[in-house]
From TrEMBL:
Pfam families per UniProt: CoA_transf_3
Species lineage: Bacteria, Pseudomonadati, Pseudomonadota, Betaproteobacteria, Burkholderiales
Molecular-function GO term, any one: transferase activity
Stored InterPro entries: CoA-transferase_III_domain, CoA-Trfase_fam_III, CoA-Trfase_III_dom3_sf, CoA-Trfase_III_dom_1_sf
Protein name per UniProt: CaiB/BaiF CoA transferase family protein
Key words of the record: Transferase
């Protein structure tokens, strides 16, 4: 798998992934692997495809600027993949997928517990064909336990794991009540954890210093991930036995670390230590605040948050958001605007880093190119690549089946039968 330095390849070049997942968590995982150079073949249902192809509006636009039938949601997590259509309910479709799994390094699926056994596509069946196979199952609640048979969705898990209970304003505040995060973060985090687990399993199999040569099974559950990403909120509960509540944009362990109203809008202050607070106080001519015993340390500021805010809020309204940023940015006091998504993409730093990527779509479906968001991993020797736009449904079926050894007549017969 190693290539000469003069011809750099992705870190996962040579790794073959059979992607039987759909919606977000599984596809996010496999896009991560694809970005790193793996050959990911996405298997979709004939005609319908992945559910998210229809989750619109918004939809992709054709060359004339008109809406197509393909939802933009799909493009968030299916870059750099090849799409084939296979009806796994048919025996010939199952046989095709088993042949592909026999040649794959990784299978990722998010069917219900035990759902693929009837097709001979479960781990034990495929392990018998390919002992080196790494097989990752993603479900709502895991492969065992009282909830194992339940369907699991991001919103449900955000509610169950406690994330919604700490997101939003307090009940007594205007607009108070539990809220979901604005992105399906449990799905996204599950995809990230799953890709990490797969990389660990590949290393355990192939490591030159004692690799087993054997694959393994990975059981990923959205609920497990939801609990894990509670992070400091979970550790705070475990330390005290007290369930944290909602406090809007206030940080439970830092102060001042929140949004403030300004003369023309809002600004975000993220003061994380006593030095930053002292520099903020000096910048606004209130050095005495940093010497006040109530505010001299972060712990004191947290305990006396109400008194501190009573002093700060009138001062913060004296300048515009831009004036606050100009005042504080060269003093190492973290301060910034609260952008909407359009403003974020237009931010000079975001534009400099090339976060928006335009990828050509060569599927003959009227969509010339698709905009996607760059992968944030910047590797110096084996950089992320942007080889292809999220594919049209079944765009690569013929090419992938030809790699399996099927000739044009065999592919045409499968298409006639509705297998592909």
């Amino acid at each position: 798998m190693n290539a000469p330095a003069s011809t750099p390849t992705g870190a996962l070049a040579g790794i073959k992934v059979l992607d039987l997942s759909r919606v977000l968590a599984g596809p996010w995982c496999t896009q991560m692997l694809a970005d790193l150079g793996a050959d990911v073949v996405k298997v979709e249902r004939p005609v319908a495809g992945d559910d998210t192809r229809h989750w619109g509006p918004p939809f992709l636009k054709d060359g004339a600027g008109n809406d197509t039938r393909e939802a933009s949601y799909f493009t968030a997590c299916n870059r750099n993949k090849r799409s084939i259509t296979v009806d796994m309910a048919q025996p010939e479709g199952q046989a095709l997928l088993r042949r592909m799994a026999a040649q794959a390094d990784v299978v990722v699926e998010n069917f219900k517990v035990g759902g693929l056994a009837q097709y001979g596509l479960d781990y034990e069946s495929l392990k018998a064909l390919n002992p080196r196979l790494i097989y990752c199952s993603i479900t709502g609640f895991g492969q065992d336990g009282p909830y194992a048979e339940r369907a699991g969705y991001d919103l449900m898990v955000q509610a169950m794991c406690g994330l919604m209970s700490i997101t939003g304003h307090a009940d007594e505040a205007p607009g108070g009540g539990p809220l979901k995060v604005g992105v399906a973060v449990v799905d996204v985090f599950t995809g990230l954890y799953a890709s990490n687990a797969i990389l660990a399993a590949l290393n355990a199999r192939d490591n030159a210093h004692g690799g087993s040569g054997q694959g393994q099974y990975i059981d990923m559950a959205l609920l497990d991930v939801g609990m894990a990403v509670l992070a400091n909120q979970a550790s705070g509960f475990l330390a005290t036995g007290q369930a944290p509540g909602r406090a809007g944009n206030i940080h439970p362990s830092l102060a001042p670390y929140q949004d403030f109203a300004t003369a023309d809008g809002n600004v975000l202050l993220a003061i994380g230590n006593d030095g930053q607070f002292a520099r903020f106080c000096a910048a606004i001519g209130q050095e005495g605040w940093a010497q006040d015993a109530r505010f001299a340390t972060n712990t004191a500021r947290v305990h006396n948050r109400a008194a501190l805010l009573a002093l700060m809020q009138p001062v913060m309204r004296l300048r515009t958001t831009a004036q606050w940023i100009s005042l504080l940015e060269d003093k190492a006091v973290p301060c910034g605007p609260i952008n909407d998504v359009a403003q974020a993409f237009d931010d000079p730093q975001v534009r400099h880093r090339g976060i928006r990527k335009e990828l050509p779509r060569e599927a003959g479906d009227g969509i010339a190119q698709v905009a996607t968001v760059a992968n944030p991993m910047r590797l110096s020797a084996t950089p992320v690549s942007y080889r292809s736009a999220p594919p049209a449904l079944g765009q690569h079926t013929e090419a992938v089946l030809a790699e399996l050894g099927l000739d044009a007549a065999a592919v045409a017969d499968l298409r006639r039968k509705g297998v592909i």
